[in-house]
Every structure is written in structure tokens, then in C-alpha cells.
Protein 1
Amino acid sequence: VDPTDELRWSKADWRARMFAIELSYTQPGGANVDWLRHVLECMPPAVYLGSEYFDRWYWRDAGVLANADWVDIEELRTGKAANRPADAGEPLSPEAVPAILEQGVDSRRAAEGAPAFKPGDRARARFHSPLGATRLPRYTRGHAGTIEAYHGWYVLPDANACGDERAEPLYTVGFLAKDLWDDVKSHRDMVFVGMWESYLEPI
């Protein structure tokens, strides 16, 4: 990403408007970043792959609001609100948005036990294909790697998307690129992936 002034978005650019709406609009209660990923990944593959990045943001947010009965199809079609949800609360002021973004969301949690793996251990990524969102890359599934680091306990995104805010140990796992793809020529290149404990099995 090049943040120089020459490449900044124009004020007339709809993508800049979508980005600003995303940062400031009031979301239904219970929404979190993992639920948003889940809704995004429910898009039909052809639509997802044929859409621009911020197109997907729009359709995801429309899905979140429609799922919560905050908007209906006619409102989405016309772009005009018919009513205001009683539980929507007051809109954020422009001054409040930067403060909320700076605060962020901390997904670290207190450890609930000893981790199953330690740096240097070998582990295999499970064949894990849930119906909803997961942070386990498909290209790693079934492949063996090495635990490079243990980071403590963090909220498991797969469960958090369904409202279950449970935590698991989180690791960095290193894979040789040649073990993941057949056409890799270098035997030294590596891919490092953040993986929760339930994504892994011992070798």
C-alpha cells in the first residue's frame, strides 16, 4: 500500500465513501469481525470472485443489516430508509470514529492450560472444512509444518463468528513452500501462517 498524497482516494470515489461508512456505521448487536468474515464468505463464489474489494464490503454489510431486520429489500433497492431500528442507537459523531479505531479490539485471553505444542515441534494442518468462516488456509490443509512461535491464547475466529467467544492457543507455523505447491523451484522458501491449536494435529 502506497499512502502517498498522489495516490489518495478522491472525495468523489465511491470506494472511499464505502470505506468511511464501514468505519462509522452502527452495526447490530453481536456483530464482530469474525461474523463479518462469515457473512462475506457466504457470497456465491462466482459473485465473490467477480466483485471488486469494496463491492464485497457493501454486499456483506447489506447482508448483516438484512439478517438483523434493520433493512429490507426495498430499502436496499431504493437506498432510502423506511424506518429506523429502535435498537440502532445514535450515530457516531465524526470525532468519535478515530478514537474507536485507535482503541481497537483485543482478542487476547488468559491462558486456560498448557499449549499442546512448543517451538520446534512438527504438526500437521487438519483437513478442516467448516461451513462458515475459518482462518485456516485451504492450501495448508493436510501439510506438515514446524511450530515457529507460541503467542498465548486468543479468541478462535471460527467459533466467534457464531457467537462463541472461546479462546485457544495460537501459533506461528512455518511450511516449506515446496511442500505446499508442486511448481515451487526454491527449496528454501517458506510460508508462515498463524494457526489456532484446533487447526493442528501432532505428527
Note: The chain has a mean pLDDT of 89.
Protein 2
Amino acid sequence: MKRNLTEISQELNRQSDWKALPDLIFITDQKTQPFPENIIESLPHDSMVIFRDYDHENRAELASALRYICKTKGIKFLVAGDLTLALMVDADGIHLPEHMINEAKTIRDAHSDFFITGACHANTVLEYLPKNELDAVLFAPIFATTSHPETLNDPTLTIGSSTLKDICEDISVPVYALGGVNEMTAKQLIGTGVAGIAAISGF
């Protein structure tokens, strides 16, 4: 029987050492998912939303509206790359793009209750990840994805499930798989040790 992304992410989380964490993360992107509120309404209550939409003309207003929906549903809400906005909408935390990941300690010291995630990519040097400051990392791209068109023709630019498994074994931070993850590819994540799935177009 075909399983949806939620069911697969729940299985991945059950298999992992991170059962107290959300198993499914939705990352907003108006171009790909123009109605994020519909996706959020369909998420299980223990999911997480990362509000990206860096270039949205009404970013603060949209963040506030989506934060409200998440709060009523018991879904964690993080703002990507903008501490001021995260504080303004009373977000549960912040998601740091890779170029901001070295700010994790400063943010943690000032906001100890924040849930802090960071973005990591295929060429990330793992030993450079800040120690004990990130609650989770999102590794991408795991599979080929249209958001990174170069991966469609060059599989060496993706991380793949085998390398992802090695990453999960090498670091003591929960890992979420991002990039080309959908109902078809997510099954390849079984046994990797990921805490769950992060997706945009996969919903």
C-alpha cells in the first residue's frame, strides 16, 4: 500500500534516536507552494514549519498569519534567517541558512528557549558545525531536485541515502533529509537514522 510523506516520516522518526522531535518539516516557498496555509492545516500537530519566503512583499504579515495557524495546531514555527522577525511573531525558533550557521551560539546565549536549526549542504565540512548549539540540521540536497537544476544531470552533486546514513552516524545532532524528498524517494531514507523529512514541493 502506498504511504504518504507523513506516514513515511513518522516511521523514520520511530526508527531514530530522536522520537521527541518533529518528524515532518514544511518549508514555505510562495513560488512552489502559493497556499502554505492549506499545507499547514493538513500537517500533524507534532510537525514543524520553517517560514522562508525571503522576498515576499508582505513577509512580516504572512509570517504572523502562519504563526497563528501553527500555534492553534500545536506546530513548531521557525523563521528562516531573520532573528528580528522571529522575535516579532513570537516564533518557536530560527532556521539558519548555512552562511549564518556560525551565529548559532550567539543566538542560543541570548534566547536559550529557541529551537535552532541549520542548513547544511553536500560540501559541508561536518567538523565546522557549531557544537551543542543546533537542535537539528537539514541536509540537502539528498536527491535530485528542480530547485537545484544542476543535480538533475549530475548525481554527484546530491548527498544520497548512503552518505546520509554515514552523516547520521558521525554527528550527534538530529538530521532531517531535504531536497528531492517525496512519496517515492522518501522510502530510500529508511534505515539512515534521520529524525525525519523536510520538504517544500514534496507536499
Note: The two ends are 18 Å apart (CA to CA).
Protein 3
Amino acid sequence: GITTYAVHPGVVATDVWRRIPPPFRWLVQRFMLTPEQGAQSTIVAATDPALASHTGRYYSVGGKEKPPNKLADDPELAKTLWNKSAEWTGLPA
């Protein structure tokens, strides 16, 4: 009964860019998504009833399903990531 998704909101004009000097920040943010637009992929993944029968998929900007990067399907890399994450958090692998 639990589904999981990977979601990429896109490049969003949020406060994360605050360390970029103002003239450049304002210019660069003109080409970014608004926070509302960036939230769409997460909202779709969290609320779309059509996705309830799907799991383990990747959704990009605007909630569009896309194939993941080839590295995301590498079983050895996944095992390494799992083991390192367990090691770093002190949880059993």
C-alpha cells in the first residue's frame, strides 16, 4: 500500500540562491521556475490517484514521468549507496 517516487522540481527561484550577488541573482532567477511551478512535480506525485498503482518511478519538472539516469538502475551502485547510507547514519545495512 506504499508507493515511492523520485521527484525533480527543476531549477526553482527560491532563497537557496541568496549567496549569489544581487544583480546576478535577479538576472539568473528570471530564467528559473517560480516556487509554485517547482512544486508541481511533488504535488502530482503526492496527490494524483492515477499514480497509486505505480511505484519507483521518476517525475521531473511539472510532474512528467521520465526514465531515470542509467546509474539509477545499477544494482551494484544501489547496494553501495545503501550500505554507505547505513554506515553514515549508524543503522544496520
Note: The mean pLDDT is 89.
